[in-house]
Model the fold of this input.
Amino acid sequence: MAQQDERSGEAGAPGSDPGEGLGPGEREQLVYALENRFADHLEAAASAVREAERQLAEAQEDLRRAVEQESARPYRSDSLVFMREAMNEEVDGLHRKTNPKKVRAAYRFLLDRAVELAAGEVAGFHDDQAAERRGREHGVQACQEAEKRAVAAVEEARRMQERVRNAEALARQGLTVLADKLE
Done:
């Protein structure tokens, strides 16, 4: 019965009966079969490495652009600072007006400027929020973090590719042992 178990373990080896050595051309067939079974996995691993490297190159380019934009960005002052101060002066000037006609005209002017100031404040708030969001998503620090993640992904993809190659090498070693024992 033990002999039958040994034979059933060998049954299924291509072109050989239990107890026989490798037939002519069988070694080449086994190598071909091994290579075919690993081809998709080796290509998938290589493709994963190429994709990770491409993403790293993109992250590095994004970082370069972000640094360039950061250094080229001109200083932008808050134009509303002057408008706010001018509004305070307009209110003070309105207090000094004594003629009703001048008071009405000064008030209309004040009202128009106050509405402009309010619109500027709202627009400035939205611009600041958008700039902060862009900075979080595409700023130098965000690009540095993306580059770190891309470097880690490349390293992990290369480790995975090496593990796939090791699996193939183990299969080849097994094939060598099989061939040595059966020849």
Observations:
- Residues 26-182 form one domain.
- DSSP finds five helices and no strands in the chain.
- The radius of gyration is 38 Å.
